[in-house]
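PROTOCOL LOG
Step 1. Enter all chains and additional molecules of the complex.
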Amino acid sequence: MSANEKRQAGEAAIRYVENGAIVGVGTGSTVAFFIDALADLKDRIEGAVSSSEQSTAQLKRLGIPVLDLNATGPLNLYVDGADECDTHKRLIKGGGAALTREKIIAEASAKFVCIIDSSKQVQLLGKFPLPIEVIPMARSLVGREIVKRGGNPVWRDGVVTDNGNWVIDVHGWQIADPMALEKDLNQIPGVVAVGLFARRPADVVLVGDRVM
Ligand code: 5RP
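Step 2. Run joint prediction.
Step 3. Record the structure below.
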């Protein structure tokens, strides 16, 4: 993992921000560099839609207005990091437990610019444990369903998401068909969101300051 590449990626994403924009903002240490750079443009943008309490706090601290997605409608741009990225720009996300709101904003955005360091690039998704946000009472049920599918579910004990839910991290999956797995897991009652971004992958991936 390279903090320098994360900074480069966060700063490079600024070139996608247009005057007057409302920018969708993800969560994590790479996005924190993007928010810092966005603050320099704050007089040129209308504001941001935030994917987490963590990003909201940073945005507000730097004087960037935080807007409600219900009020803004569709966005032109979403900038977020990832835990893994394959050659088709499909992602695993949710290491920071913000996957559900991240997925909502990605879906609402015309362009998703993903910012990563080179350690996140993979041929096959799944070495990074796949995060799944679940309704608390469904934790065991979802865990059993994952075991049936050959995964090893580990409860991220002590973590409560911004939505009041829990996270299961699935170890041991080599994800050959991310789209099919995402669809399958989404059918399990109690699953709020799956940290696979295959149906809605990134549009642009910046690895440091280089377009992938
Ligand atoms: C948060 C995420 C993050 O984008 C992902 O965990 C990458 O984080 P970082 O930029 O700190 O490596 O999905 O839920």
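Step 4. Note key features.
The radius of gyration is 17 Å.
The pocket of ribulose-5-phosphate is lined by residues 26-30, 80-83, 93-99, 102 (CB under 6 Å).
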